[in-house]
Amino acid sequence: MQQAAAAGTARTEDAAETWTSLPWMMLDLARRRPQAPMIRYWRGGAWRRLSWGEFALQVGSLAAWFRQQGIMPGDRVLLVSESRPEWNIADVALMAIGAVTVPTYVTNTVADHAHVIADSGARTAIVSIPSLAARLAEAAAGRLEQLLLLDAEGAAPPGIPSHRWADAVATPAELPLLLAEVEQIPPGRLACLIYTSGTGGLPRGVMLPHRAVLANRAGIAGFLERLQVAGTPYLSFLPLSHAYEHTVGCFLLPSCGMEIVYSRGADRLAAELTEIRPTLITAVPRLFELLRARMLAQLEKETPFRRRLFETALALGLRKLDGPPLGPLEAVQDWVLDRLVRNKVRARFGGRLKALVSGGARLDPDLSGFFLALGLPLLQGYGQSEAGPVISVNLPWDNVRHTVGKPLDGVQARIAEDGELLIRGPLVMDGYWGNAEATAAALRPGPDDGTWLHTGDVAHLEEGRIVITDRKRDFIKTLGGDMVSPAKVEGLLMAEPEIAQAVVAGEGQAGIVALVVPAEGMADKAGAAIARVNAKLSPIERIRRWCAAPAPFSVENGLLTPTMKVKRRAVLERYAGEIGALHR
Predict the structure, then answer these.
(1) Which of 470, 500, 524 is the last residue of a domain?
(2) Is 517 helix (H, G, I), strand (E, B) or coil?
(3) Distances, alpha carbon 198 to alpha carbons 112, 195, 284, 506, 513, in Å
(4) Does 2 reside within a domain?
(5) Three-state SS across 74-104?
(6) Is the domain of 247 the same as that of 302?
(7) Whether residue 418 sits in one domain with residue 380
(8) Which of 13, 27, 466, 6 is CA-nearest to residue 218?
(9) Contacts (Cβ under 8 Å, ≥6 apart) of 271
(10) Where is the domain boundary, 470, 495, 527?
(11) What is the CATH number of the domain that holds 574?
(12) What's the total number of domains in the chain?
């Protein structure tokens, strides 16, 4: 592992290589840099900071309180909260005493919570606000024995003994003794159960040991060191219950010296970019689609001269990415436009971004090209909850945007005979909680004696880089026996500014049909967008008929995951009548 700088404090390679658990890493770093800022968060109308030293003291107190409440090693504890410092403190405190964190989305329905509680066997829950606590109490059906409420105000739900955060963190603790304990935690001990998003059915509990998250850190630390982001802010936007943000935002980036700043939400993002001036942001493709649409909508309000400047900067930027090379006069023009146009675009994102990392779903190359051509370093990565979750990522100095980059150090990748991507390394999960059948399907021996994770993604390798083409189970087989990639067609549809969301269908039918959600104010133009997409497709892939969905896909109506991925199966089931009518 390469040496990682942290908030102006040098740390030796030997210290990093000895960490065998996440609590040891975090408490050891707190001992080394107690005054350094760790987390910035909004509360009481102002930004506030939590230092590493304050973090460690609260971890020690909370760990002592958990033990007083009878929480034992191996016990699963539900954690349901918005992004806030208490989330990180509780997570590390639970792991420090050998308990298992079960992060759960605040947007979950009662049925979602009921499934996770029953499946994990959790008997204790940590929850932020009374309304969430009431939803949990309804879902628990008597299974929860106690709640820890983060907010002091509001009534606790009846029927479950409840405790307050302020009382718990007032518990006396012996931090040196806890640090000595966490040094003995083996790397293979279960750290957390991360439930999958449920795009293909009921969520499953992914068993991630400490070594999986530490392997992700080892694989990315050199990249962060080269970016020189230590001591700078990272704007955290994704929910902490997501596998990616749990690993990257809770452990990886802070351990490499970045200050984590919790965003107040999508409606505040534009203001926070200029206020916080982050060097790093991670998000899902949907956010970048929305940002592009917003930029183009604002461009329409500009004068014709300013629009031409923007369009020329975009065109020349794409030429630099894809060729042919710029001529001498074009290079001068591009230099001028970099100052007139791209500098203003970069300023709207804070002015010092070193990487915008997209993950969680396919990033259309045209979408990433838009941002790259305007001087914003948008990179595509790839991962799965079952693999720590980071498997690969493009780099600013080695960005091939139709790929998801090269596997991290320590990650082996190969392609099975049927095209499925297989992964091996210390980042791979131990299996699915209480589901031996699903575990056996996902973790299988290879041609050697090793065990490989079957990702379910169809891919190929180009010069060591991974290129994802589709989900293995999502391929559409038409009546004529042709195989169509829905991800490709849907990606092209949503790349059009007139279309916000799209799902295509055609299994066992004569051709492909589409259910689309037009962008706001664009319902009358969706047909033209589909015609443009059809011009880019082969005859078997073309959309024969389409209709507008009765309502947008959302988390609230159960058709989007909390990380903005469309639940294809749920959409196809919900609108089976509309889709069936298109096939007739």
Answers:
(1) 470
(2) strand
(3) 10, 8, 16, 22, 24
(4) no
(5) CCEEEEECCCCHHHHHHHHHHHHCCCEEEEC
(6) no
(7) yes
(8) 13
(9) none
(10) 470
(11) 3.30.300.30
(12) 3
**Is 50 in the same domain as 196?**
yes
List phi, psi (to 5°) of 545. -140, 160
- The pLDDT value recorded for residue 19 is 96
Residues 236 and 369 in one domain: no
Whether 5 has a pLDDT exceeding 50, the answer reads no
Shared domain check, 490 and 464:
no
> Within a domain: residue 8?
no
Residue 533 has pLDDT above 60, yes or no: yes
3-state secondary structure 285-306: HHHHHHHHHHHHHHHCCCCHHH
C-alpha distances in angstroms, 429 versus 192, 276, 415?
10, 35, 19
Contact 190, 100 (CB under 8 A): yes
- Average of per-residue pLDDT across 104-124: 93
Q: What is the pLDDT of residue 549?
A: 93
229 domain residue, yes or no: yes
Structural domain of residue 555, as residue ranges?
475-583
CA–CA separation, 71 vs 144, rounded Å?
13
pTM for the model stands at 0.86
The SS3 call for residue 160 is coil
At 48, is the secondary structure helix, strand, or coil?
A: strand
Q: How far apart are the C-alpha atoms of 116 and 118, rounded to whole Å?
A: 6
Please tell me whether residues 204 and 116 are part of one structural domain: yes
Q: Does one domain contain both 498 and 406? A: no
CB of 391 within 8 A of CB of 383? yes
Q: Residue 497 belongs to what H/E stretch?
A: none
Listed in sequence order, the residues at least 6 apart from 53 whose beta carbon sits closer than 8 Å to its beta carbon are: 30, 34, 35
In angstroms and rounded to an integer, the radius of gyration of the C-alpha atoms of the chain is 24
How far apart, in whole angstroms, are the C-alpha atoms of residue 5 and residue 7?
7
Residue type, 70: G
Provide the 10 A C-beta neighbour count for residue 166: 11
